[in-house]
Amino acid sequence: MQIPPHQEPQPASIPPAQANNEAVSPGSATLSTTPSQQVPAFNTNVDQDRFAVKARGISLYALWDSRHEVAEPPIEISNGIGIRKKTYGLWKVRHFIWQPGSNKTDKPAMTAAEVERIIIALLDRLKELYAANPPLYLIFHIEKLITPESPFSRFFRNKKKTSEEFVIDNKEGFLEQHIQPLCDLGAGYVDNGWLPNRFRHYDQSSHKKGWLVISPTRALFADVDVEQVITLASLLQPYYTDSNRGPGILSERYYDMLVLIMQWVNNQDSLQAVDQLKGLVVSGTQAIDGQVWLNFAVAGIGILIAFLLTNPNNSNQLIASMVCLAIASLMFWGYARFGQRVFLFIGWLVALAIVPCLFAWTQVISIYDAVIKFLPHL
Are residues 153 and 19 in the same domain? Predict the structure, then answer.
């Protein structure tokens, strides 16, 4: 993929915010407006071992002003790329999808080299069909970034926190070094006098944070659902563009649009705080319920011990009942600790097992003896 030659922006076209040389750090909600002096070259020899991350669900959205005519997309799939006709607000959209017939779970995970080939293929297909009428804006979308996690990190808080930080760093490095340069959104790419801006973006439907990288001519969503693409398309208004001056948001209007994007990102962060508060309420309720059931189990063990001391003749059935309650108490503790309902369900089953131990011990023993005699014949 060839990178267009860099052109120095004229001082008259740079808004006042750019003249202040405001900088941005990755993931922050501040503007990045310092033009680079040189467009870096993209090295296609990607290092796939440094970031053990794969991508799934790659597509491209091309946006045209709805007031203008756009050619109908072909129905057939070409080289694994399908095209769907859509309308988002004031935009006519052509959605270029890699392997459109696959379900989310069936879509294969792609390495960095495979993602490079797919993005180039999507752009080539777009150029092939709409070279005479290029879109005003492009939105790249990667549904999911996949990275391996430690199998036991979820059971240890410190290890889980370290694992989550490692996953975020890996995904962010993969995005910055491999994906953004493919989309002409890498560090140092100047577009209409503006550098790309990257945000951590919360997706409420999936309850996780992904990434949004945006510039005057294109944007990239990673690790978020398609609803975020639709929302961005509704924020981008056609009157921010001028087809006579080329594709993309006009340099003098991009600052206003970027303010809207920042407000949207901040609003999503507020939704994340609300979801976290809801999660705390739910986990607190589960912990209380687990403690209540645990107290019942422990009280039952105390009662059985009292019966065992007063009536040693029924020691076997009382001991079996206490073992059941001890196992049930462990399951209730697991429910209070991890919030998994399977622990609560197993705890109930084991606690109910004390009923036949107390009131039908003879039948339990006979069934046990029959099973023991039958096992050698298997």
Answer: yes
Nearest CA among 131, 128, 127, 140 for reference residue 98: 140
pLDDT tens figures, 270-288: 888 888 888 888 888 887 8
Could you tell me if residue 248 is left (phi over 0), alpha (psi between -120 and 50 degrees) or otherwise beta?
left
User: CA-CA distance, 121 to 123, in Å (whole number)?
Assistant: 5
Residue 255 resides in a domain:
no
Determine the Cα–Cα distance for residues 241 and 250; give it in Å rounded to an integer: 5
Residues 303, 341, single domain; the answer is yes
Q: How far apart are CA 87 and CA 278, in angstroms?
A: 34
101-137 residue pLDDT tens? 666 656 778 888 899 999 999 999 999 999 889 999 9
HSE-CB for 139 with a 13 A CA cutoff: 28
- Mark whether 285 and 239 lie in a shared domain: no
Whether residue 166 is found in the same domain as residue 26: yes
Rounded CA separation 182/175 (Å)? 10
Is pTM beyond 0.70? Reply is: no
Residue 19, C-beta contacts closer than 8 angstroms, at least 6 positions apart: none
Q: What is the domain range of residue 288?
A: 278-373
Cβ–Cβ < 8 Å for 179, 51: no
In the chain, the number of structural domains is 2
